[in-house]
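Lab channel / #folding
Pinned by the channel admin:
"Please post every new chain as: sequence first, then the structure tokens as a reply. Keep commentary short and put observations after the output so the thread stays searchable."

First post following the new format, from NK:
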Amino acid sequence: MSSRKLSLAIALAGLAACSRKSSPIQPAQVPAVPGYEVQLGREVFAHYCATCHGDAGAGDGFNAYNLDPHPRDLSDEGFQKTKTDAQLADTIRRGGAGVGLSSLKPPWGRTLTERQVGEVLLYVRSLKKAAP
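Reply from TO:
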């Protein structure tokens, strides 16, 4: 069989396969795994935020003592209760100066994707101190 006839046979077979009625493909249901997203957020936080906020978000990172004002304790119950998710995400994106806080907190909106901002937000929310 010549290559032209072979190409035509393949094209016709492809058309026949496409024209068959088949049940629509259902997207795979991927269960939400908040723990996984929190872990991803922890990794981003460790890279970009822990230098100042510390590994546990207590505001005690190794650079914290060089800053005035010192970084906020993100695990503080009062802070966790008063800040909405939207406010925290906005602060992550725009930085301190962008939301009327210290200009020492850098903006990460051009560095992090929206998904990463959301993952960091989930991690920050997981930092709540246990009630005494």
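NK: The radius of gyration is 25 Å.
TO: also worth noting, Residues 3-19 form the longest helix (17 residues).
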